[in-house]
Specification:
By secondary structure, the protein is α/β, with parallel strands linked by helices. Helices cover about 45% and strands about 20% of the residues. The chain has a single domain, classed as Rossmann fold (3-Layer(aba) Sandwich), CATH 3.40.50.10090. GO terms for molecular function: uroporphyrinogen-III synthase activity.
C-alpha cells in the first residue's frame, strides 16, 4: 500500500496511478496541490498518509507540498520514493533521509524505487 501525492489539475494524467495499480499497488490518491500547495486536506487521509511506510512523489513541488502538510509536532522519517533524481534531491534537501529514486526517470524505475523502499521497510520491521 502506498500513498500517491499528485497535482490536482484537470490535465493530470492518470496513467501513473493506473500503472501503479496494474502492478498490484493499492493506491490512495491525495491531491495535495494545484499550482499552489493546498491548505486543507482530509485529516483522516492525511493521518493515514503520514503513517504509510512509503510516500511516492513525482516532482520537487510535490515533495515541498508533502513536507509542508506534515504536522510540525510529528517526527516524520518514513521513506520517500521519487520518480527521478531531481525530486530525490529536493526530498533530501528538505530533510528526508530515506530517499529512493531510479537511475533513469520513468514509471518502471519509480515502481522499482517504491518496491525497494517497501523491501527495506519490511526488513527493518523484522529486526
Amino acid at each position: 500500500m502506498i500513498f500517491y501525492s499528485i497535482v490536482d489539475l484537470p490535465s493530470t494524467q492518470d496513467y501513473i496511478e493506473e500503472g501503479l495499480a496494474k502492478r498490484g499497488f493499492r493506491i490512495t490518491r491525495l491531491n495535495i496541490y494545484t499550482t499552489e500547495p493546498v491548505s486543507r486536506v482530509d485529516q483522516k487521509v492525511l493521518e493515514w498518509a503520514v503513517s504509510a511506510p512509503v510516500v511516492s512523489v513525482a516532482s520537487p513541488s510535490a515533495v515541498r507540498a508533502w513536507i509542508n502538510l506534515i504536522p510540525k509536532s510529528r517526527q516524520w522519517s518514513n521513506s520517500v520514493a521519487c520518480i527521478d533524481e531531481t525530486t530525490a534531491l529536493a526530498a533530501k534537501n528538505l530533510g528526508s533521509r530515506n530517499v529512493y529514486f531510479p537511475t533513469y526517470p520513468g514509471l518502471e524505475g519509480w515502481v522499482n524505487s517504491i518496491l525497494e523502499a517497501l523491501q527495506v521497510h519490511e526488513q527493518v520491521q523484522k529486526v
